Hints:
A: alpha/beta
Amino acid sequence: xxxxxxxxxxxxxxxxxxxxxxxxxxxxxxxxxxxxxxxxxxxxxxxxxxxxxxxxxxxxxxxxxxxxxxxxxxxxxxxxxxxxxxxxxxxxxxxxxxxxxxxxxxxxxxxxxxxxxxxxxxxxxxxxxxxxxxxxxxxxxxxxxxxxxxxxxxxxxxxxxxxxxxxxxxxxxxxxxxxxxxxxxxxxxxxxxxxxxxxxxxxxxxxxxxxxxxxxxxxxxxxxxxxxxxxxxxxxxxxxxxxxxxxxxxxxxxxxxxxxxxxxxxxxxxxxxxxxxxxxxxxxxxxxxxxxxxxxxxxxxxxxxxxxxxxxxxxxxxxxxxxxxxxxxxxxxxxxxxxxxxxxxxxxxxxxxxxxxxxxxxxxxxxxxxxxxxxxxxxxxxxxxxxxxxxxxxxxxxxxxxxxxxxxxxxxxxxxxxxxxxxxxxxx
Amino acid sequence: xxxxxxxxxxxxxxxxxxxxxxxxxxxxxxxxxxxxxxxxxxxxxxxxxxxxxxxxxxxxxxxxxxxxxxxxxxxxxxxxxxxxxxxxxxxxxxxxxxxxxxxxxxxxxxxxxxxxxxxxxxxxxxxxxxxxxxxxxxxxxxxxxxxxxxxxxxxxxxxxxxxxxxxxxxxxxxxxxxxxxxxxxxxxxxxxxxxxxxxxxxxxxxxxxxxxxxxxxxxxxxxxxxxxxxxxxxxxxxxxxxxxxxxxxxxxxxxxxxxxxxxxxxxxxxxxxxxxxxxxxxxxxxxxxxxxxxxxxxxxxxxxxxxxxxxxxxxxxxxxxxxxxxxxxxxxxxxxxxxxxxxxxxxxxxxxxxxxxxxxxxxxxxxxxxxxxxxxxxxxxxxxxxxxxxxxxxxxxxxxxxxxxxxxxxxxxxxxxxxxxxxxxxxxxxxxxxxxxxxxxxxxxxxxxxxxxxxxxxxxxxxxxxxxxxxxxxxxxxxxxxxxxxxxxxxxxxxxxx
Lengths: 428, 498
């Protein structure tokens, strides 16, 4: 699918717009590449078509003729567009209205193993949540299913405006971003309410899928032992077992994190931990396993008995131990607050450039389409032009995005909310 | 006071009046109604001892219109003694002087909408004490009776500069019960946490929640029209209940007069003298009229009708808020503040006219249909229209970053061309919040004589990078970031904190 998609994009780029691509130069900004490197002052970015052709000191910037020049006021900062993970954006409009929810089955008796549940098959690029989220400087998201023990497969989507019918499916850039497993309270509740039952079911699923993968013919002839997992689920588990699609496991308690690391090692999974509220206690083990962790920085309450050790400096402590971080916020409606989460991670000790990388390059690299050449999703020559020019420090609440560019296309700075505001600016 | 004790007390006063036979009957004491909840339960301010402290050199934000770049804040015995620029305020001799230059000082932060204590962490069935969802009108319950002072979230809120919280019952019910205002930092009993002198409040709820909870059980209300019918029925009963007490007072007064005249005819042995010639015999008026049965729920609503209990009403949609203002008019009460109120900006003129405040978030939206039309400029637009706005949390996480949320709402307004000063914005979590809780005379600004609820911030309080460094409640240092945090009893001995 993603290969087809790339072809389609290439076709539209060459066919539909035959004239020379637009060139834009953003000048007088501080460049934060998002790759963990230090900021570059007095920099410029050149965007040609859908790609960045230059990002560096203004002194060395090319000045192609006919380029549109965007001269910024002092203090502007450019970063890659932020990448929000872990929420069902595009799969839900109103949380409490069943008819607007496509991220989780409404059938409470449904099997809790839903590996074939595919976010890309329900993703709605017309959702009003998308422009609201985009105004928080978020240009891509991992639209994630929820519920059950194995919730399904997420989609990596760009949050650009829908401009033509092809965009209605074209905003999905990777239809198999990750397989999501919940070993938190929800997933445990779905598996008879205990961690041992949840873990044994997880193991059973992996063992069945492994057997199925090596003996499909026997399976089709009904020559294999009874399996509780459906054929489609078994099929969709194969890329995860092969390590081609990452497996995101939500888990909180330190001891349970170690158990999950062992299972991932045993089955050769490309594991990403999520939540990991007590991850700081086993940071060395996580680092040694080279497993990245999705952390929500604004988490410090012992909100359940499985996460009594929750604390604000979890991200900092994991980073200090050498763990690769992805920072996240929760709730599809609130993804615009990702930058606030990142800022708070910095407040509790995470270096700012690491925090930025953890909301840009790292999630894009783990979940986005696999691209050749330059590292994806940084402000570097050759990268796709997904970027935000901010009025100042992107993590401060006083800052707003001045320019949002997705796939080279400048995005409108409006949403349903700004339209409501404008309608009621003067009362009737 | 029980009804029986009350009757005894009344009898005693009547007997006393009877003894002073020379007193003209016009000065008979008025029979009193029983002590109503807002009269009997209000904790009185106690004398507080706290050291003489001077915070010197910080940027002081008073939340009453002043900013002192190099300011001084002095307090002792729980009260602010002096606030002003260093050039004008002298540091008193013997004061513990703390150099806070480079840092910022604000009043203690107030959260008008909290469920800490009644929905504590960790989540547990045993901890679900926030919604008495056994009936759509439970004005008789009081959130104070559900508060668990060992909720670990309380200490974390204090560490974020919160000094006062308003704990409300949840929104399952049309009328969920009374709310209570608490101070943080002292925690063994709920009595010890109560904000002295704070008025009672009443939690009411519009819209989806009550009709979902009860409609789901095929009980009333299951529609918005059912909601409104429920409020009207409840306040009609309360009006009748109040009238019943009024009638009893009237009857009692007549009885007292008769009783007094009768007593004047008694001799020292309590035996009636025969009437003088030409006078009619004075009849024994019989036993004292019994007061009506007490109903604690109706008393709370009667308190609302008397203007003694402040209505705090959960309501999202503009049209529903406008309708509730009409209901309040119909029964002659005021809605003190709408909470959540994400559409308040659409009727900000009506709210300003009614003098009703608004407590809301910066940007929560979309979790249900009635929250679909939220805009981040809500508070700024309300400010511009002259409505007292507050930024509330309704969350044990959000309460830990209220100044950041204020910054978000303030900047959204400014970017949309709405004039909001930093002082205006700070009031959303200080002065205006205090007004919404009826404690604006006591706290909410850095003014001499007010409670010494003071926060020293590591930098600009509206920055995402800023910590609360020192938190004073009633002049006592209750949080110091340089020290190990105080943990609740629940957290003691848990391996994860070692």
